[in-house]
UniProtKB/TrEMBL annotation:
<dbReference type="Pfam" id="PF00929">
    <property type="entry name" value="RNase_T"/>
</dbReference>
<dbReference type="InterPro" id="IPR036397">
    <property type="entry name" value="RNaseH_sf"/>
</dbReference>
<dbReference type="GO" id="GO:0003676">
    <property type="term" value="F:nucleic acid binding"/>
</dbReference>
<dbReference type="GO" id="GO:0045004">
    <property type="term" value="P:DNA replication proofreading"/>
</dbReference>
<keyword id="KW-0548">Nucleotidyltransferase</keyword>
<dbReference type="GO" id="GO:0005829">
    <property type="term" value="C:cytosol"/>
</dbReference>
<dbReference type="GO" id="GO:0008408">
    <property type="term" value="F:3'-5' exonuclease activity"/>
</dbReference>
<protein>
    <submittedName>
        <fullName>DNA polymerase-3 subunit epsilon</fullName>
        <ecNumber>2.7.7.7</ecNumber>
    </submittedName>
</protein>
<dbReference type="InterPro" id="IPR012337">
    <property type="entry name" value="RNaseH-like_sf"/>
</dbReference>
<feature type="domain" description="Exonuclease">
    <location>
        <begin position="108"/>
        <end position="273"/>
    </location>
</feature>
<dbReference type="GO" id="GO:0003887">
    <property type="term" value="F:DNA-directed DNA polymerase activity"/>
</dbReference>
<feature type="region of interest" description="Disordered">
    <location>
        <begin position="1"/>
        <end position="51"/>
    </location>
</feature>
<keyword id="KW-0808">Transferase</keyword>
<dbReference type="InterPro" id="IPR013520">
    <property type="entry name" value="Ribonucl_H"/>
</dbReference>
Length: 356
């Protein structure tokens, strides 16, 4: 069992703090040990490093040190996290496409992401589309990736410079590119539902591009999962990915699909509940969307914490039918909302730009 991670600096100041050291009196070590990040790399790389072995201090070469860290990487990272001095984020590795999936997972979902020229589906257009077909079981737990597709697409308007700066997709990159629509429709044909991070945005563009997307229920990993109740302040894709211990190259469609997959089925740092199970449970029940208009300005922070989102004209939240009465009472008594609008939502119409 690894006791502590050897310091990089072999000549630190006396009495520097080393987390978890066995022979440290009041959690301090004798001169020669340090985890001070301010001096990392100050000494020559050829100098030997030090490690603890029981109560003995042993020296080893940089090559031995590197080999030790690589061969015990997961254990080293776990020990580093325990110190609470820093947090560890791994580069996200794409899960392989499996030819022979686990037979216990008989259902499928489609994880979707698009890159566009802007945010208005009436004006803007898709520049890149990607999807992953993933198996799930009867409870909604995720299994294997069984299919993957991504492609650039030439939009009907030029890509603005600020979008190119964000996505690194240029007009030259998309010139003459089209999607394999029959392949996408085939992937879509037998899925239980489609999931996207901000499904209202993705469904609007996908349905405009391929009408078959309007025939399948959609779930939203941004709105349908109670991230705020788990204390997760940042709910964008990159922020949530960091919560489960990874980072990725954001704003490319396929990378974002794999990032969303990791959030829905975290492998390294589990969440309080399995997000995909929540989505699968949610997609099977009709709900209502409550729009709260002209709320007190001082209530904005509390409404946001409660799960409301600003929709341009007011705050809105989607709840189970059984929770409607309690939510309306809250808005009337505490938020003192001027008026509310309640929209019934069928499973098929959820996040749809045309079926509401």
């Amino acid at each position: 069992m690894l006791t502590t991670l050897a310091p990089v600096d072999p000549h630190p100041l006396p009495g520097d703090f080393v987390p978890g050291a066995r022979n440290a009196k009041k959690r301090r070590l004798p001169s020669g040990w340090s985890t001070s990040s301010s001096r990392i790399g100050r000494r020559a790389a050829t100098e030997p490093k030090k490690r603890l072995s029981g109560n003995r201090v042993e020296a080893f070469t940089p090559a031995e040190f590197s080999a030790f860290v690589v061969s015990n990487l997961d254990q080293v990272l776990a020990e580093v996290e325990k110190t609470r001095i820093c947090r560890v984020e791994k580069a996200l590795q794409r899960r392989p496409v499996v030819v022979r999936p686990d037979p216990r997972f008989q259902r499928t979902v489609l994880v979707v992401d698009v890159e566009t020229t802007g945010t208005n589906p009436d004006i803007d257009d898709v520049t890149e589309f990607a999807c992953l077909k993933v198996t799930i079981n009867d409870e909604g737990k995720m299994g294997d990736v069984v299919a993957s597709y991504s492609s650039l697409r030439e939009p009907h308007i030029p890509i603005p410079p600020d979008i190119t700066l964000l996505t690194n997709i240029t007009n030259d990159d998309v010139a003459g590119k089209t999607l394999d629509v029959p392949k996408i429709v085939e992937l879509l044909s037998d899925v239980e539902f489609v999931v996207a991070h901000n499904a209202k945005f993705d469904r609007s563009f996908c349905s405009k591009m391929i009408p078959e997307f309007e025939c399948v229920p959609w779930a939203c990993s941004l709105d349908d999962i109670p991230w705020h109740t788990w204390g997760l302040v940042s709910q964008n894709l990159s922020g949530l990915l960091k919560e489960v211990g990874y980072y990725h190259g954001a704003h490319r469609a396929l990378d974002d699909c794999y990032a969303l997959l990791e959030i829905l089925d975290p492998r390294w740092k589990p969440l309080p509940q399995e997000p995909c199970v929540i989505l699968y449970d949610t997609i099977q029940r009709p709900r209502v969307r409550i729009d709260a208009r002209k709320t007190r300005f001082t209530m904005n922070g509390e409404l946001k914490k409660r799960g409301y989102r600003w929709n341009g004209s007011g705050w809105s939240i989607t709840v189970e039918i059984e929770e409607e009465a309690a939510e309306l009472a809250y808005l009337k008594q505490k938020a003192r909302t001027a008026y509310t609008i309640v929209h019934s939502e069928t499973v098929e119409a959820k996040y749809s730009p045309t079926l509401r």
